[in-house]
Write a structure and sequence with these properties.
Order of helices and strands: HHEHEEHEHHEEHHHHEHEEEEEEEEHEE
CATH class: Alpha Beta
Radius of gyration: 24 Å
CATH topology: Alkaline Phosphatase, subunit A
Number of strands: 17
Distance between the termini: 56 Å
Largest sheet: 9 strands, mixed
């Protein structure tokens, strides 16, 4: 095999063999080594170890002392009403269906439409020893064993009132939809404990969220860090079982031949890191066929566990199945699991819509938190539950037939957290008397991202990747830690 050299100054490959010439200056070469798959091989050589033994998803030491080793991120797509779930506003009951004071910042208000305050159709009560206030439709999460594990953050503000933009911002730190998902950043910074399963796994309950796979993309990071989607029904992964006519030995020989062809191809095109990621994905798929079937086989769980997650009820079966899978995946070393629950966009028929969605997630989320605690995993697993924004205190009408609904609100939202070093049994921050705007411990969503990374031992200012002429990070331009959210 011929060797490759870089001509001093020009950055052009030597022409002794038939390879593509790539013009690469000294600066670009150094940045490439420090910000791509090349860095893995380079650092392995420095350490005197074969590069192949330290793949891109190999476990890495955290930058800072970590409280959480894994994260389960539950996204309530559509924006649940914070005043209808975990931030009660009695004042809205007094103002119900009286004309509201129009907020010029709420851009979805029709210019000619009158808007009316909407009192929550649900009752509230304090639960657990902590006295956290919770909508009375949450039955299982009201269990003190669950409620006293929660941290409810009421001071968060989103950046957009458009679903795709806001979802992108929640999941990637950018409203543009081309940046890495938070799970991609975490696996880029920490790797994965189990090399036989993906480090970043995604599940969707009803349908793809608005914006689609851009919510869990690897963006400009190497392709190894993109989220792997598990299907919501049937086999979670297509082609998980090999064809009956092909043995494991035959698969291995086929992969070895393919790898040899791909290596020859890659030698002539050393700047194309997508090929390396594709080669690794074939190997990962081969390894997954041996390990994943056991992980996704929920029949191995007891009937009591399946019932606790809501698998025996139509309303909660789908989301419950995914929450149970999330626990099993984290238990087997997956670093970041994300589940999307859709249908929370209640512009009208608020009581009917939110009641149905609460029923679908109440039992599964409660079971997940309780199960993680009983297995000794909750302290090292960060559980996050959030929509992409909150809702308005008025109906923000768009011409619907029912006035009892709410519009989009980027200025106030409630985020639930549990485990992973968050302060259990606490409420942090507050909104005004009608829930229109956060007024205490107010932080933009990027600060929440910074805090989540810190809980997992990552420093947002150091977790960077050189792209487009600058070092990029999850918070985009830097954010602040929210100390009140760290126990």
């Amino acid at each position: 095999m011929s060797t490759r050299s870089v001509a001093s100054g020009s950055g052009q490959l030597a022409s002794g063999d038939r390879r593509e010439h790539v013009r690469l200056g000294r600066r670009e070469l150094l940045f490439g080594l420090g910000a791509s798959a090349g860095s893995l091989a380079f650092t392995s050589l420095l350490a005197g170890e074969p590069a192949a033994t330290a793949g891109p998803l190999a476990p890495k030491e955290p930058m800072l002392p970590a409280k959480a080793k894994a994260c389960i991120f539950l996204v309530l797509e559509g924006g649940p009403g914070h005043m209808d779930t975990f931030d009660p506003k009695p004042k809205l009951r007094d103002l119900h269906l009286t004309e509201s004071v129009r907020d010029p910042n709420q851009v979805l208000v029709e210019l000619t439409a009158k808007t009316y305050y909407v009192g929550s159709p649900f009752g509230f009560r304090k639960v657990g020893k902590s006295g956290i206030e919770m909508c009375d439709r949450f039955v299982h999460m009201a269990d003190p064993a669950v409620a006293d594990e929660l941290c409810v953050y009421r001071g968060c503000q989103a950046q957009s009132v458009n679903h795709p933009d806001a979802l992108y911002h929640l999941n990637t730190g950018s409203t543009l939809g081309a940046d890495p998902g938070v799970g991609a950043w975490v696996t880029y910074g920490l790797g994965s404990f189990n090399q036989n399963v993906p480090g970043y796994v995604v599940m969707t309950e009803l349908a793809f969220p608005q914006g689609g796979a851009g919510n869990w993309s690897n963006g400009f990071l190497p392709a190894h860090y993109q989220g792997t989607l598990l299907r919501s029904s049937g086999s979670p992964v297509l082609d998980l079982e090999p064809p009956q006519w092909k043995t494991r030995e035959q698969q291995r020989r086929s992969l070895d031949l393919l790898a040899d062809i791909n290596r020859r191809h890659a030698e002539r095109r050393p700047s194309h890191d997508e090929l390396a990621a594709r080669m690794e994905s074939y190997e990962l798929a081969y390894r997954m066929q041996a390990e994943v079937p056991d992980i996704v086989d929920l029949s191995r769980e007891s009937e009591a566990t399946r019932d606790a997650y809501g698998l025996n009820a139509e309303a909660s079966r789908s989301f419950g199945r995914q929450c149970l899978l999330a626990r099993r995946l984290v238990e087997q070393g997956v670093r970041f699991v994300q589940i999307f629950s859709g249908g929370w966009d209640s512009h009208d028929f608020l009581e009917r819509n939110h009641a149905a969605r609460i029923e679908s997630v109440d039992k599964p989320i409660a079971a997940l938190i309780r199960d993680l605690r009983q297995r000794g995993m909750l302290d090292e697993t960060l559980v996050v539950c959030s929509g992409e924004f909150g809702r308005t205190p008025d109906n923000n009408r768009r011409g619907g037939v029912d006035p009892n609904g709410r519009g989009h609100n980027a200025d106030a939202m409630a985020v639930l957290m549990a485990g992973g070093g968050t302060p259990a049994g606490t409420v942090v921050g507050a909104t005004d008397e009608v829930g229109n705007r956060a007024v205490e411990v107010v932080h933009p969503l990027k600060d929440l991202h910074v805090t989540w990374l810190r809980l997992m031992g990552l420093d947002d200012n150091r977790l960077t990747y050189f792209h487009g002429g600058r070092f990029k990070q999850l918070s985009q331009v830097g954010g602040q830690l929210i100390p009140e959210l760290i126990a």
